[in-house]
Every structure is written in C-alpha cells, then in structure tokens.
Amino acid sequence: MQAAFVVRRARLASGLVLFAYLATHFLNHALGLASLADMEWGRGWFLLLWRNVPGTVVLYGALIVHVMLAWWALYRRRTLRMPVWEAVQLVLGLMVPPLLVIHVLGTRLSHEFFDTNDTYAYVVLVQWVFQPWAGARQIAVLLVAWGHGCVGLHFWLRLRPWYGAWAPYFYSVVLLLPVAAILGFVAAGREVARLFQDEAWFASLQAEVNFPSAEAVAEIYRVEALFLWGYAAILALVLAARVARALVLRRRAVAIVYPDGREVVVPLGTTILDASRMAGIPHASVCGGRGRCSTCRVRVAGNLQSLPPASAEETKVLARVGAAPNVRLACQTRPTARVVVEPLLPATASPRDARPRPGYVQGHEEEIAIMFADLRAFTELSESKLPYDVVFLLNRYFRAMGTAIEGSGGHLDKFIGDGVMALFGVGGKTNEGCRNALLAARRMSENLEEMNRALAHDLDSPLRIGVGINVGAAIVGEMGFGRATTITAIGDSVNAASRLEALCKDYACQLIVAEDVALKAGIDLGAFARHETEIRGRKERVAIRVVPDARELPVGAGG
Asked: Where are the alpha helices (DSSP H) in 279-345?
C-alpha cells in the first residue's frame, strides 16, 4: 500500500511538471500574436527554463515516469470498464508520446546531434510552409496533451473545498491559453510565409539555422519508426500481461455480495470497486479509484478478517469523513474471502460528498435542541391564490425562515409542506444550541414581520407562525436514500418538539418553549406564562413557557 502512495505521488508530480511545460510552451506560442520576433524573445526565456541540465533531467524524467505509470495503470486495472472521463484521460495520455515524438526529434535531437538551431522561424517554416500536415499534427498533439492534463488537474483539485469558487477562472485560463497559442502560431505562420518570399531572408535563415541534411532527416525518421514500433510493442506486452494474469487468477476467485443479493465472483486481488465495474453495478468514485475522495466507501457486514488491513493512507481518508470501523474504501480493499458489502453513497455522488465530515453523521445519540415551525391558516390562504403566487409566497417564507435559522447557527433539517424542522447544538453543544434556537425564533419572528410589511398589499391578512422548541436526547445521523439523504434526528424529543408547535394553536401564541431549553440556555423566561401540559406519547407532564410574540424574548436570546 505504501508503494501505491508513492506511485500516486509520482504520477501527480510528473504530471504537474509536464503541465507546467505545456503552459509555458503555450505562452511562448501566444507571443506570435504580437510578432515572430516576440516569439523568439520568449523562446530565450523558455530555453533558459527548460533547455539546461536540471531542466532537461526534470522534464524528460517526468515524461518517462508519467508514460511508464500510464502503462502500469493500464496493467494494474482489473477491468477496462470505467467512467467516461477516466477513459478519455487514459486514451489521451497514451496518444501523446507517438504524436509528440517527431517534434522532439526534429527540435531537441536535431539540435543536440546535428547542430541545428531550432528557432521559431525554422520550426514555423517547416510546419507552415514545407509540411503543413506536420503543423496540424503539432497542434493536435498539444491539444491532446493539454486535454489530458486538464482532466487530471480537474479531478485532482475538485476535491479541494475552495475549488468550486475558483473553477470558473481556471476554466477560462485553460480555454483561452491554447486558443491564444494556436492563434499565435497561425499569425507567425503567415508572417513566415510572407518572409519566405524574400530569397535574402531565407538565405540568412539557412545560415543561422544550419538545416539538417537529407541524411540527418532520414535518421530522424528512422528513430521515429523505431520508437513507434517499440511503443506499440510495450503496449501490446501490457495488454498481453493483463490477459495472462486473468488466466492465472481465474482459478482463485472470491465472491462479493451486494445489498440486492447479487453475488459477483472476481479473481483474487480485485478491488471491490473494480468488482462493481466488472459486474456493471453503478458505484460512486469521484477520484477515479485513487483512494482520495472516499465516495466509493462501503459498509462491510460480518467478519472483517476477510479483508486485508487498511493502509495508512486509506485510514487517513476514512478518518477524514468520520467513517465507522466497518467502513472501507472500495477502491483500496481487495477481499481474500467471500464478503458482503453495501455502498454508502449513490453512484451520482459529487465532490462535496468527499469533503471532511463530522463523526456524528454515522449515527449516534446526543442531546440537542429541536425546533418545529408551521405557517398558520396557509391552506385557506393558498385556496384564494394562483399557483404561481403560492409558490412565490412559500419560497419567500422559506428564505426568511431559513436565513434566520442558519444565521443563528442552526441546521435546517427539512421543509415539510409549509413547516420547518431545524436542529441546534449538534455535535455536543447542547447549551449553545438552546441559546441559538431561541435566537433563531426571535429572528424568524422579526423576518416574518418584515415580510408581512413588504407584502401587505398582496395578503388579505398577515402571515402567522407557530414555533415549538424542545431539548432532549435524539438519534442524529445521515438518513435517507440517494439525493434525499440528509442529516436529521429522530426520537421522542423530536416528536415532543412537534407537539409543542401544535400547542401554539391552543395557547394562541407564536412560540412555546420547553422550560428545560431556557434553563440550559441560561436565559430567564420568567416573564412568560408557565404551564405544565400533557404531550401525547409522554407519561409525565412537560413544563413549558408560552411566548405570545417571539420578538419579546429577552435580549440574551437575541445575540
């Protein structure tokens, strides 16, 4: 597993070096929009960076490492079924060396072995005037390499929390840079084609460049042919090795059982993620099975001894998302015996699902404050409104209530019809949660009053709400299915909060608070009437405080 970590780091480092080389090459090409002379000026800085001993070692070392790791990745895959973006990245990456080799030989090798001064004037003349097809291929290989790099960069960075905000700027750069480079090449080509009409200019260029001889050109093409045959042979060997491995491992198989009862038999050494792909079972994997995103994680039922221990990197990723002990990354786990698994995220999981998550999402019991709020008489109001007006009013109401809750540190659990459920103090902050719940109630009342003023001409009567707040032990965790999964709470204390909200009708008030909420919040609600009432589902009576208008809560409840 440590070797896998080193491989990932080497792939990333070599890829970043090659991407930097492409970016600086594109910038140099883009100077052609100004003039050929400016391209030559930029080439001086470009060569200063890349055409020296350290630069050469880093650049060609990165290229060799990246290509070798591409072969290794192709061999290591137990199945060629993969998401489209992975296939595109793999194919583009394998296309680069055979497309690029003639350009490298015609510039760097010609410079080193045949003393050719590969200026931009020489390269553009060859690719624009003498061999236009070579120029088209050069543009193609640059775009292929750039596309490969951009896909890899995107799927590396999109796991970062800040990437979403910066992504539009990155997209602009990665789109405009190659466009500017191509336009610069075209502008330089036209300039060189015009200059080529001047015999004196061409004679001067010949003296400066030292064009390779016919024998040298033949040698360059011979080396290209040898490279292409060698590259094809290695690729064929990799594919043959895959077939041989499959034949050897076919006799040693393990079964992986999924929640629907489907049993997939795969060769020993296959990851759970690859097993899903081989069987055509949708399985989330935002990072493409590189062990970085955690979206492929599965819950393992039964004996965990059938699984090899998690590596340090896998353990780190699982800890980041607060995974339970029986949860593993499907892309890193290779069962050695029959195992029953359950994917924890839908196949449509997004990068957001890969970000660090608090441990309580796995499910546990803790004491929290729970709020329920409901619009009064909204059904009658909606009957006299057009559907468009009803939707407009509800969205305006939800926004007013949602901003008050989230602005007070609460977790907006769900909207239920025209009602709202919210949680406060999740994560072991009960007292703070009680204070925040009261603050939210006050802000909700204020926002509703402001909304009523703004819509006075559209409403027959002001909108009214009833709010109930309770505190107590509840089971908190991520519950639901697919896109309807959210962090919520269940339990007797949650039901009691709903009952308190319903009691607002009986007491003709806006807010009812369980007295324990005020005590834990450290806020004196002695100015409000105290009652002990029965709540359906509870044997003991509950002490409550009845607040006619939540805006009347003490300043301590208002922040």
From this structure: 312-320
Q: What is the pLDDT, as a whole number, of residue 160? A: 81
Residue 91 has phi, psi (to 5 degrees) of -65, -45
What is the spatial distance between Cα 394 and Cα 7, in angstroms, rounded to a whole number? 53
Tell me the H-state helices in 412-491: 430-454
Q: Which residue has the tokens 């800085």?
A: 45
pLDDT at 557 exceeding the cut of 60: no
Q: Do 540 and 411 fall into the same domain?
A: yes
Q: Of 306, 334, 354, at which residue does a domain stop?
A: 354
Q: For 130, which DSSP code?
A: I
Element (H, E) at 239: helix 214-249
For residues 469 and 368, the answer to whether their CB atoms sit within 8 Å is no
Based on the fold, state whether residues 532 and 462 are members of the same structural domain: yes
Q: What are the strands, taking DSSP E only, across 162-284?
A: 253-257, 263-267
CA distance linking residue 40 with residue 32, whole number of Å: 9
Alpha-helical regions (H) of 105-162: 110-114, 120-124, 132-157
CATH number of the domain encompassing residue 534: 3.30.70.1230
Instruction: For residue 426, give the nearest of 437, 418, 417 by alpha carbon.
Output: 437
345 is written with which tokens? Answer: 């995220």
Single residue among 194, 217, 246 that ends a domain in this structure: 246
**What mean pLDDT do residues 154-159 have?**
83
What is d(CA 346, CA 425) in angstroms, rounded to the nearest whole number?
Answer: 28
Indicate the number of domains in the chain: 3
Give yes or no: residues 49 and 187 share one domain: yes
Confidence of residue 275 (pLDDT cuts 50, 70, 90): very high
- 330: number of Cβ within 10 Å: 26
Give the CATH number of the domain where residue 336 resides. Answer: 3.10.20.30
Phi, psi of 216 (to 5 degrees): -65, -40
**Which residues span the domain enclosing 313?**
253-354
Q: What is the CATH number of the domain that holds 58?
A: 1.20.1300
**pTM > 0.90: yes or no:** no
Instruction: Give the largest Cα separation in the chain, rounded.
Output: 106
